[in-house]
Amino acid sequence: LMKYYLILTLALALSFAAHSKAEDTPDQWRTLDLDKTILLELETGPVIIELNPQFAPKHVEQISKLVTAGEYDGQSFYRVIDNFVAQGGMNVETTTKLPLLKLESDHQLTASDHFSMVSNKDMFVENTAFLNGFAIGFETKSRMSWLLHCPGIVGLSRQNEPDTGSSDFYITIGQAPRYLDRIMTVFGRVVFGMEHVQKLNRTESIEGDTLDRSIHSKIIKMQMMSDVPKAKRILIEVERTDTEQFEKKLIARMTREHPFFYIKPPQVLDVCQVPVNSRLVTSH
Amino acid sequence: LMKYYLILTLALALSFAAHSKAEDTPDQWRTLDLDKTILLELETGPVIIELNPQFAPKHVEQISKLVTAGEYDGQSFYRVIDNFVAQGGMNVETTTKLPLLKLESDHQLTASDHFSMVSNKDMFVENTAFLNGFAIGFETKSRMSWLLHCPGIVGLSRQNEPDTGSSDFYITIGQAPRYLDRIMTVFGRVVFGMEHVQKLNRTESIEGDTLDRSIHSKIIKMQMMSDVPKAKRILIEVERTDTEQFEKKLIARMTREHPFFYIKPPQVLDVCQVPVNSRLVTSH
Q1: pLDDT digit string (tens) for B161-190?
Q2: Cβ contact A150–B175 (<8 Å)
Q3: SS3 letters for chain B?
Q4: Residues of B in contact with A253 (CB under 8 A)
Q5: 8 Å CB contact of A175 and B180
Q6: Is the pLDDT of residue B144 over 90?
Q7: Which of A201, A214, A231, B151 is the 20 to 30 Å CA partner of B12?
Q8: Which residue among B45, B192, B256 places its CB closest to the CB of A179?
């Protein structure tokens, strides 16, 4: 119980004005900005990606332009490794035609960043938290933060050299590959349809495998949600992570008061194991 | 580099005779015991499960009996939650007919357990390691160990009360739900076909969802591999985790010498993010 209060106090201390914000606007859901949302149509079903211009403005700008120009339509996921990543795009040397993007990772937290503290026991970073639905890591002293490679994030692919990506992207589909934090740019996350990403044909697997790995699942179409005809839009609301309710959820996931937990687990939270919920808006 | 040596030394110190064992038998692959291997046939493809009688002898005995009796044939995965678990079996109150199983979790390490040390920075347990292909946690002083809820493990489902499971099982399909360690019995792990598990129809999802969640993917057949006719057997070799090569792999995943890592990540390893490889034996 001591631990609980310690962490709660820490969360309160670190989350700036999160609580007062939550009281001002009690709604625990937010609607997505259609100009910052991508509809990725796969043969296995629709996938919706929320972009993050706060951490990766130039990536969001370039990817949005390519999406609007229809550059991804008919392309494929050509590198899909189970429990790791699904990588898709043009799979060509686009680097001569498109501007190469410089890594966009670090963001200094300010008082207007209403994050919710998750843990100071993470293996890879001093602190973990949620900021606007995204899992972040941050350092207490410098207030430097970055987006974490949790399942379902969208990042820019590159060659071995830094800053060599321009268009192709990957979606993480397994245990968080946190060793990629800060050396790859995360520019979005899947808020709907991860199960459709999980159904993509795997292109690499175990030795001696007889499955057909040459079948690359297609990207039917990729559009900015604002460009999708109104009748065909899929409207999503995402759980706000800057509310008192969300902080209660974090504590509940740590303390596990449900009788199912007849022995309580260690009171720690893996930020990548906390779901941030979404829901479809049925009328529009 | 200091860290590297420290961890290497620790690994050597803790892994008992692992190194001398590795030198005696240089092969880095082991074949599965067909009597301790399950072939789970799904509509999406075959799945192979290696059982763990060392940690969960009574679970392995009961599940093997049910498999041999054909009890799972034609049953389904009735609770599939993306990034969490795929739960399958009879989905009936079998508890009146079948013996309830008591939790089987803790195992005291002995000198004959040739484990490979992974980390002493884990969030949930003092130490993590691999033992016979399975991720384990253990305490330094007591030498008590248990199997961890990494992606692809197979555990016994239960009600809220402890020791209330008998037949139905779950496969973890997302970020490791480590808070289930030691309160659920892990009795096996998927060594082939996780992509087929990932393709199972999800039965629960986000609010307002229009997808048909009532479709439960079927278990076509579940057999002990030793009962499968020879011509139809799928023979698998699994990477040994008690060899010098495997320990080198662990260090390589931590130190990341490849030029892709132009900045080195923190020198830590998430045990659930380390793949233990499998390969098909093509001739038999």
Answers
A1: 999 999 999 999 999 999 999 999 999 999
A2: yes
A3: CHHHHHHHHHHHHHCCCHHHHHHHCCCCEEECCHHHEEEEEECCEEEEEEECCCCCHHHHHHHHHHHHCCCCCCCEEEEEECCCEEEEECCCCHHHCCCCECCCCCEECCCCCCCEEEECCCCCCCEEEEECCEEEEECCCCCEEEECCCCCEEEECCCCCCCCECCCEEEECCCCCHHHCCCCCEEEEEEECHHHHHCCCCCECCECCCCCCCCCCEEEEEEEHHHCCHHHCCCEEEECCCCHHHHHHHHHHHHCCCCCCCCCCCCCCCHHHCCCCEEECCCC
A4: 179
A5: no
A6: yes
A7: B151
A8: B256
Beta-bridge partners for B155: B170, B186
Query: Residue B177 contacts by C-beta under 8 Å, 6 or more apart in sequence?
Result: A273, B84, B85, B149
Question: Which chain A residue is nearest to residue B157, measuring alpha carbons?
Answer: A260
Helix (H, G, I), strand (E, B) or coil at A115: coil
Nearest to A188 by CA among A32, A70, A73: A32
Whether A197 and A86 have beta carbons less than 8 Å apart is answered as: yes
Least confident of A44-53, A199-208, A266-275, B46-55: A199-208
Cα nearest neighbour of B274 on chain A: A175
B257: number of Cβ within 10 Å: 9
Q: Directed axis angle between helix B244-255 and helix B2-14, to 10°? A: 150
State both tokens at B278.
């499998």
**A236 HSE (CA, 13 A, CB side):** 26
CA atoms within 13 A on the CB side of A129: 30
The span from the CA of A10 to the CA of A67, in Å, is 41
Q: What pLDDT is stored for residue B23 in this prediction?
A: 44
Q: Do B183 and A265 touch (CB under 8 A)?
A: yes
- Smallest CA-to-CA distance from A83 within B124, B38, B176 is with B176
Provide Rg for chain B, Cα atoms: 19
pLDDT at residue B42, as a whole number? 98
Flag whether pLDDT at A2 surpasses 50.
no
List, in order, residues 6 or more apart from B22 with CB less than 8 Å away: B242, B243, B244, B245
Q: Which chain B residues are within 8 Å of A207, Cβ to Cβ?
A: 277, 279-280
- Residues from chain A that touch B179, judged by Cβ atoms under 8 A, are 253, 256, 261, 265-266, 273
Note whether A151 contacts B174, CB cutoff 8 Å: yes
Shortest distance, CA A83 to any CA of chain B (angstroms): 8
pLDDT band at A3 (very low <50, low <70, confident <90, very high): very low
**Inter-chain CB proximity B175 and A180 less than 8 Å:** no
Q: What is the mean pLDDT of residues B130-152?
A: 98
How many CA atoms are closer than 13 Å to the CA of B130, on its beta-carbon side? 28
| Segment A232-241, tens digit of pLDDT | 999 999 999 9
| Distance of residue B196 Cα from the nearest chain A Cα, in angstroms | 8
* Terminal alpha carbon distance of chain B: 45
- ipTM, interface predicted TM-score of the complex: 0.90
